[in-house]
UniProtKB/TrEMBL annotation, chain A:
Self-association state and partner proteins as the record states: Heterodimer composed of ETFA and ETFB. Identified in a complex that contains ETFA, ETFB and ETFRF1. Interacts with ACADM.
Lineage: Eukaryota, Metazoa, Chordata, Craniata, Vertebrata
Species per Swiss-Prot/TrEMBL record: Phascolarctos cinereus (Koala)
InterPro entries associated with the record: ET-Flavoprotein_bsu_CS, ETF_a/b_N, ETF_b, ETF_beta_N, Rossmann-like_a/b/a_fold
Location(s), subcellular: Mitochondrion matrix
Record SMART domains: ETF
Protein name as annotated: Electron transfer flavoprotein subunit beta
Domain Electron transfer flavoprotein alpha/beta-subunit N-terminal: 26-202
From TrEMBL, chain B:
Substrates-to-products reaction catalysed: (R)-malate + A = oxaloacetate + AH2
Keyword Transcription: no
EC number: 1.1.99.39
InterPro entries documented for this protein: FAD-bd_oxidored_4_C (IPR004113), FAD-bd_PCMH (IPR016166), FAD-bd_PCMH-like_sf (IPR036318), FAD-bd_PCMH_sub1 (IPR016167), FAD-bd_PCMH_sub2 (IPR016169), FAD-linked_Oxase-like_C (IPR016164), FAD-oxidored/transferase_4 (IPR051264), Oxid_FAD_bind_N (IPR006094)
Enzyme class: oxidoreductase
Identification of the protein by name: D-2-hydroxyglutarate dehydrogenase, mitochondrial
FAD-binding PCMH-type domain span: 50-230
Length: 202, 477
């Protein structure tokens, strides 16, 4: 049984199917009372981590979310999908607006070291800001190799082979663990959170 | 294969369309008279590809006045007319049997008004249901009905067939939600009952006659309908049940614990799941079970609804009524779960030739008929499935085979209808009678009732030009 711990970042964003409306004072978009859910790429990252655990290549899946109280819903979804633990880094609503990739990657770096994670799995970008920076910054801060836009991931011993979707097509790279990998759309199809698990998280 | 070749039906002595007729129509609706064989081909065949007419003329009026002039002329000339909406009907009622003129509402697609205070929508009969839903959703309302055909069906057709659908459990029948109608009668007379009032007890409620009349008493040209407010919180639970008894007990528990927030209760058997998995590549979100139940809640307060739903789910899971399930709160997942139920019809079409039955039965007996038919047909059928609006006591029983077979048909009919009649059920819960089921009306209605219906038809359409060969058995039989 592997000793590898996977740290998965999950972000709470406005649901992908919602029609976005700009606030009347034009300072942002309406978020009050609007349906939120886990960022689709984060879902794919969680799914991949859980699959690795099911294959007994990963020992523990730890989900992390930074933000106000409602992030706990997102963490519950991750737990219901099969994550073992959820860590909520609470940031009050007033300051949450200023949370960006730089701040989140600092948090993930600290947690990866504290939890002795060997693999950090993130979504390639969030659908609200489309920054596509957190994974890369986290890898730089940890001084770990990175495999971004992963459409295929294979763990073999202390190495991970990542097939990446790039402009010219597909690129395959091999990284030595510990490493940061960001998930792209075709990495997998996330499972539905099933009731017994959902009940367990309440 | 033409309907008239497959089924024993003789053309009634209507006139045949002549060059003068075409010229007249061209004067009334210039550029919208079609005799193009390709366009006619689509209009002559129903969605299920079970019936095929041989009409040579397709008319596309834009206004009620045009419909009125067309019908007045056809009545005088004794030309048969087939009103056609989205052509998504399940009983062969929307396409010609012979060469009836197709009167399409496709271009009567304007919204006339929407009262945002009362939620009353007034629109022409050719508006597509899904588009109407989008229109009122932008104004914070929803249509009171929803069905799998929403992307193609017209509201006029929905009203003419008294369509049921997935929201029936919560919002009720079109007989309740339709406030007014504008109908053109067989002789061209425009009957304006298009009021937008909730309450109006002044005389006989004529619009009720036309709702569900399947285009045989008049052509609906405009509809006034009451729309409910868009729910702020919608949740969908997809559950697996070990047996039909558990499906029923879950429904009972559901009504007790979810009560007023329940908006849909649908069920499907495992064979349905296999069909959508195989033919449409959809994936089962839960463990394999003999039955699956879809429960939708709609309410105005997310927290309140989630709490009720969580309590309900805890109850049914701990008591073993439900062995597995998943819950969706966001739109994308909700649509994906609904697709498993809404696209069964599509998967069945891909499985082969479909024998389709839509019956109302007492709830405890609802699935017995599926088991009975399955064992009765044995190997001669490819798939025998049951699914439907359990909450309304409405079963969709479907049998598929590789191709049409009259011997298989004989094994199913009239056995299915006799079974239904024995339990005082309806041989057509929501699909209507159309062409396919008109001769079986006797299984669910008395002779006196049928006679009165024929008298009413005779009064409103003495020449019988509106949608002939359908809905009622001919007076002589």
């Amino acid at each position: 049984m592997a000793e590898l711990r996977a740290l998965v970042g999950v972000k709470r964003v406005i649901d992908y199917a919602v029609k976005i409306r700009v606030k009347p004072d034009k300072t942002g978009v309406v978020t009050d009372g609007v349906k939120h859910s886990m960022n689709p790429f984060c879902e794919i990252a969680v799914e991949e981590a859980v699959r690795l655990k099911e294959k007994k290549l990963v020992k523990e899946v730890i989900a992390v979310s930074c933000g106000p109280k409602q992030c706990q819903e997102t963490l519950r979804t991750a737990l219901a999908m099969g994550a073992d633990r959820g860590i909520h880094v609470e940031v009050p609503e007033s300051e949450a607006e200023r949370l960006g990739p730089l701040q989140v990657s600092r948090v993930l770096t600290a947690l990866a070291q504290k939890e002795k994670a060997g693999l950090v799995l993130l979504g390639k970008q969030a659908i609200d800001d489309d920054c596509n920076q957190t994974g890369q910054m986290t890898a730089a801060m940890l001084d770990w190799p990175q495999g971004t836009f992963a459409s295929k991931l294979t763990l073999e011993g202390d190495k991970v082979t990542v097939e990446r979707e790039i402009d010219g097509g597909l690129e395959t790279i091999r990284l030595k663990l510990p490493a940061v990998v960001t998930a792209d759309l075709r990495l997998n199809e996330p499972r539905y959170a099933t009731l017994p698990n959902i009940m367990g998280t309440n | 294969m033409l309907t008239c070749d497959r089924y024993p039906v003789r053309r009634l002595p209507f006139a045949e369309v002549s060059e003068e007729d075409l010229a007249f129509f061209e004067r009334i609706i210039p550029g919208r008279v079609s005799t193009d064989p390709c366009e006619l081909k689509l209009g002559n065949v129903d969605w299920l590809k079970m019936v095929r007419g041989c009409s040579k003329v397709l008319l596309r009026p834009k206004t009620t006045e045009e419909v009125s002039q067309i019908l007045r002329y056809c009545n005088k000339r004794n030309l048969a007319v087939n009103p056609q909406g989205g052509n998504t009907g399940m009983v062969g009622g929307s396409v010609p049997v012979f060469d009836e003129i197709i009167l399409s509402t496709a271009l009567m697609n304007q919204v006339i008004s929407f009262d945002t205070m009362a939620g009353i929508l007034v629109c022409q009969a050719g508006c597509i249901l899904e588009q109407l839903n989008q229109y009122v959703e932008e104004r914070d309302f929803i249509m009171p009905l929803d069905l799998g055909a929403k992307g193609s069906c017209h509201i006029g057709g929905n009203v003419a067939t008294n369509a049921g659908g997935l929201r029936f459990l919560r919002y009720g029948s079109l007989h309740g939600t339709v406030l007014g109608l504008e109908v053109v009668l067989a002789d061209g007379l425009v009957l304006d009952c298009l009021t937008s009032l909730r309450k109006d007890n002044t005389g006989y409620d004529l619009k009720q006659l036309f709702i569900g009349s399947e285009g045989t008493l008049g052509v609906i040209t405009a509809v006034s309908i009451l729309c409910p407010r868009k729910p702020k919180a919608v949740n969908l639970a997809f559950l697996g049940c070990p047996g039909f008894a558990e499906v029923l007990k879950t429904f009972s528990t559901c009504k007790g614990m979810l009560g007023e927030i329940l908006s849909a209760y649908e069920f499907m058997d495992n064979k349905c799941m296999q069909l959508v998995e195989n033919h449409l590549r959809l994936s089962n979100p839960v463990k394999e079970n003999p039955f699956y139940v879809l429960i939708e809640t709609s309410g105005s307060n997310a927290g309140h609804d989630e709490e009720k739903l969580t309590n309900f789910l805890e109850q049914v899971m701990s008591s073993g009524l439900v062995t597995d399930g998943t819950v969706a709160t966001d739109n994308t997942k909700i649509k994906m779960l609904w697709a498993l139920r809404e696209r069964i019809t599509e998967a069945l079409s891909r499985d082969g030739y479909v024998y389709k039955y839509d019956i109302s039965l007492p709830m405890e007996k609802l699935y017995d008929i599926v088991l009975d038919i399955r064992s009765r047909l044995g190997q001669s059928a490819k798939s025998v499935v049951g699914y439907g609006h359990l909450g309304d006591g409405n079963l969709h029983l479907n049998v598929t085979a590789n191709s049409y077979s009259s011997s298989l048909l004989k094994a199913i009919e009239p056995y299915v209808y006799e079974w239904t009649a024995r339990h005082h059920g309806s041989i057509s819960a929501e699909h209507g009678l159309g062409f396919k089921k008109k001769d079986f009306i006797g299984y669910s209605k008395t002779q006196e009732a049928i006679l009165l219906m024929q008298q009413i038809k005779g009064t409103l359409d003495p020449k019988g030009i509106l949608n002939p060969y359908k809905t009622l058995p001919s007076s002589s039989s």
